[in-house]
Design brief:
mainly alpha; 8 helices; 85% helix
Protein backbone atom coordinates (compact mmCIF):
# COMPACT_ATOMS: atom_id res chain seq x y z
CA UNK A 1 0.00 0.00 0.00
CA UNK A 2 1.16 3.50 -0.65
CA UNK A 3 1.65 6.35 1.75
CA UNK A 4 -1.62 7.86 0.48
CA UNK A 5 -3.52 5.02 2.13
CA UNK A 6 -1.88 5.85 5.44
CA UNK A 7 -2.81 9.49 4.89
CA UNK A 8 -6.46 8.64 4.24
CA UNK A 9 -6.49 6.43 7.33
CA UNK A 10 -5.03 9.31 9.33
CA UNK A 11 -7.79 11.64 8.07
CA UNK A 12 -10.46 9.10 9.06
CA UNK A 13 -8.97 8.89 12.56
CA UNK A 14 -8.83 12.68 12.98
CA UNK A 15 -11.47 12.86 15.75
CA UNK A 16 -9.98 9.89 17.57
CA UNK A 17 -6.29 10.74 17.29
CA UNK A 18 -5.72 11.15 21.04
CA UNK A 19 -7.45 7.82 21.71
CA UNK A 20 -5.37 6.16 18.98
CA UNK A 21 -2.17 7.40 20.65
CA UNK A 22 -3.39 6.24 24.07
CA UNK A 23 -4.41 2.83 22.71
CA UNK A 24 -1.05 2.44 20.97
CA UNK A 25 0.71 3.35 24.19
CA UNK A 26 -1.21 0.70 26.14
CA UNK A 27 -0.94 -2.02 23.49
CA UNK A 28 2.79 -1.43 22.97
CA UNK A 29 3.49 -1.58 26.72
CA UNK A 30 5.09 1.86 27.14
CA UNK A 31 4.66 1.38 30.89
CA UNK A 32 5.42 -1.84 32.72
CA UNK A 33 1.88 -2.27 34.07
CA UNK A 34 0.08 -1.87 30.72
CA UNK A 35 0.07 -5.63 29.93
CA UNK A 36 -1.75 -6.21 33.21
CA UNK A 37 -4.31 -3.53 32.30
CA UNK A 38 -4.86 -5.05 28.87
CA UNK A 39 -5.21 -8.65 30.03
CA UNK A 40 -7.18 -7.70 33.14
CA UNK A 41 -9.69 -5.59 31.20
CA UNK A 42 -10.18 -8.28 28.58
CA UNK A 43 -10.56 -10.95 31.26
CA UNK A 44 -13.10 -8.85 33.18
CA UNK A 45 -15.11 -8.23 30.02
CA UNK A 46 -15.18 -11.92 29.14
CA UNK A 47 -16.09 -12.87 32.72
CA UNK A 48 -19.04 -10.46 32.66
CA UNK A 49 -20.28 -11.85 29.35
CA UNK A 50 -19.74 -15.42 30.57
CA UNK A 51 -21.65 -14.71 33.80
CA UNK A 52 -24.55 -13.03 32.00
CA UNK A 53 -24.66 -15.82 29.38
CA UNK A 54 -26.59 -13.84 26.75
CA UNK A 55 -27.88 -15.37 23.54
CA UNK A 56 -25.84 -14.73 20.39
CA UNK A 57 -28.39 -12.23 19.07
CA UNK A 58 -28.42 -10.34 22.37
CA UNK A 59 -24.62 -10.30 22.52
CA UNK A 60 -24.34 -8.99 18.96
CA UNK A 61 -27.00 -6.34 19.63
CA UNK A 62 -25.30 -5.16 22.81
CA UNK A 63 -21.91 -5.06 21.06
CA UNK A 64 -23.42 -3.01 18.23
CA UNK A 65 -25.09 -0.69 20.72
CA UNK A 66 -21.87 -0.16 22.68
CA UNK A 67 -19.85 0.44 19.50
CA UNK A 68 -22.41 2.96 18.21
CA UNK A 69 -22.47 4.84 21.52
CA UNK A 70 -18.69 4.87 21.75
CA UNK A 71 -18.44 6.10 18.16
CA UNK A 72 -20.67 9.02 19.10
CA UNK A 73 -19.37 9.76 22.61
CA UNK A 74 -15.58 9.32 22.32
CA UNK A 75 -14.94 12.14 19.82
CA UNK A 76 -17.02 14.53 21.94
CA UNK A 77 -15.22 13.55 25.15
CA UNK A 78 -11.81 13.76 23.47
CA UNK A 79 -12.65 17.21 22.08
CA UNK A 80 -13.67 18.46 25.53
CA UNK A 81 -10.76 16.87 27.44
CA UNK A 82 -7.91 17.50 25.00
CA UNK A 83 -7.45 20.95 23.56
CA UNK A 84 -6.12 21.61 20.06
CA UNK A 85 -3.09 23.26 21.69
CA UNK A 86 -2.06 19.95 23.26
CA UNK A 87 -1.52 18.40 19.81
CA UNK A 88 2.19 18.62 19.01
CA UNK A 89 4.33 17.76 16.01
CA UNK A 90 5.70 14.82 18.02
CA UNK A 91 2.19 13.44 18.44
CA UNK A 92 1.54 14.03 14.74
CA UNK A 93 4.64 12.00 13.84
CA UNK A 94 3.56 9.24 16.21
CA UNK A 95 0.07 9.14 14.63
CA UNK A 96 1.65 8.97 11.17
CA UNK A 97 3.83 6.06 12.32
CA UNK A 98 0.82 4.22 13.77
CA UNK A 99 -1.12 4.67 10.52
CA UNK A 100 1.82 3.38 8.50
CA UNK A 101 2.12 0.34 10.79
CA UNK A 102 -1.59 -0.35 10.42
CA UNK A 103 -1.29 -0.15 6.64
CA UNK A 104 1.76 -2.43 6.79
CA UNK A 105 -0.28 -5.04 8.66
CA UNK A 106 -3.14 -4.66 6.19
CA UNK A 107 -0.75 -5.06 3.26
CA UNK A 108 0.87 -8.09 4.89
CA UNK A 109 -2.48 -9.80 5.40
CA UNK A 110 -3.37 -9.08 1.78
CA UNK A 111 -0.09 -10.60 0.63
CA UNK A 112 -0.70 -13.71 2.72
CA UNK A 113 -4.12 -14.12 1.09
CA UNK A 114 -2.62 -13.56 -2.37
CA UNK A 115 0.14 -16.04 -1.57
CA UNK A 116 -2.38 -18.65 -0.49
CA UNK A 117 -4.28 -18.11 -3.74
CA UNK A 118 -1.09 -18.45 -5.76
CA UNK A 119 -0.09 -21.54 -3.79
CA UNK A 120 -3.52 -23.00 -4.54
CA UNK A 121 -2.84 -22.57 -8.25
CA UNK A 122 0.75 -23.86 -8.25
CA UNK A 123 0.48 -26.75 -5.75
CA UNK A 124 -3.19 -27.68 -5.40
CA UNK A 125 -2.58 -31.03 -3.66
CA UNK A 126 -0.30 -29.59 -1.00
CA UNK A 127 -2.67 -26.64 -0.58
CA UNK A 128 -5.66 -28.96 -0.17
CA UNK A 129 -3.92 -31.25 2.30
CA UNK A 130 -2.59 -28.36 4.41
CA UNK A 131 -6.02 -26.67 4.54
CA UNK A 132 -7.78 -29.93 5.39
CA UNK A 133 -5.30 -30.77 8.16
CA UNK A 134 -5.46 -27.23 9.54
CA UNK A 135 -9.26 -27.19 9.57
CA UNK A 136 -9.38 -30.67 11.11
CA UNK A 137 -7.03 -29.59 13.89
CA UNK A 138 -9.11 -26.46 14.43
CA UNK A 139 -12.30 -28.55 14.62
CA UNK A 140 -10.63 -30.91 17.09
CA UNK A 141 -9.49 -27.95 19.19
CA UNK A 142 -13.06 -26.60 19.07
CA UNK A 143 -14.34 -29.93 20.35
CA UNK A 144 -11.93 -29.84 23.30
CA UNK A 145 -12.54 -26.23 24.36
CA UNK A 146 -15.54 -23.93 24.13
CA UNK A 147 -15.62 -21.35 21.37
CA UNK A 148 -15.97 -18.63 24.01
CA UNK A 149 -12.72 -19.68 25.69
CA UNK A 150 -10.95 -19.90 22.33
CA UNK A 151 -12.23 -16.42 21.43
CA UNK A 152 -10.86 -15.14 24.75
CA UNK A 153 -7.44 -16.70 24.14
CA UNK A 154 -7.35 -15.41 20.56
CA UNK A 155 -8.21 -11.84 21.57
CA UNK A 156 -5.75 -11.98 24.44
CA UNK A 157 -2.98 -13.14 22.10
CA UNK A 158 -3.87 -10.46 19.53
CA UNK A 159 -3.88 -7.73 22.16
CA UNK A 160 -0.46 -8.83 23.43
CA UNK A 161 1.19 -9.03 19.99
CA UNK A 162 2.03 -5.30 19.60
CA UNK A 163 3.76 -5.19 22.98
CA UNK A 164 5.62 -8.42 22.36
CA UNK A 165 6.73 -7.14 18.97
CA UNK A 166 7.89 -3.72 20.18
CA UNK A 167 9.78 -5.21 23.10
CA UNK A 168 11.55 -7.65 20.74
CA UNK A 169 10.22 -10.69 22.59
CA UNK A 170 8.28 -11.96 19.59
CA UNK A 171 11.37 -11.92 17.39
CA UNK A 172 13.54 -13.41 20.12
CA UNK A 173 11.34 -16.41 20.86
CA UNK A 174 9.75 -16.97 17.44
CA UNK A 175 12.81 -16.45 15.24
CA UNK A 176 13.44 -20.21 15.00
CA UNK A 177 9.90 -20.89 13.80
CA UNK A 178 10.10 -18.10 11.22
CA UNK A 179 13.42 -19.45 9.92
CA UNK A 180 11.98 -22.97 9.56
CA UNK A 181 8.97 -21.64 7.64
CA UNK A 182 11.28 -19.60 5.41
CA UNK A 183 13.45 -22.63 4.70
CA UNK A 184 10.36 -24.72 3.88
CA UNK A 185 9.07 -22.07 1.47
CA UNK A 186 12.47 -21.74 -0.23
CA UNK A 187 12.73 -25.52 -0.59
CA UNK A 188 9.29 -25.64 -2.22
CA UNK A 189 10.21 -22.85 -4.64
CA UNK A 190 13.32 -24.75 -5.75
CA UNK A 191 11.30 -27.88 -6.60
Amino acid sequence: MSGGDAGSLKRRLEGLREMVLLSDSVLSWEKEWYPAVTSGSLTALFLVVWYMDPSMLTLMSVCGLVMTLLDYIIPKVVASVFSEDSWTSEKEKKLEQICQEMMFVRTGLGRVCEGMGAYRETSPLIYLSSVVVSLYMLAHLGALFSGFFLAYLSLLALSMLPGLHRRGLLEKYCAGIILKIGEFVKAKKLE
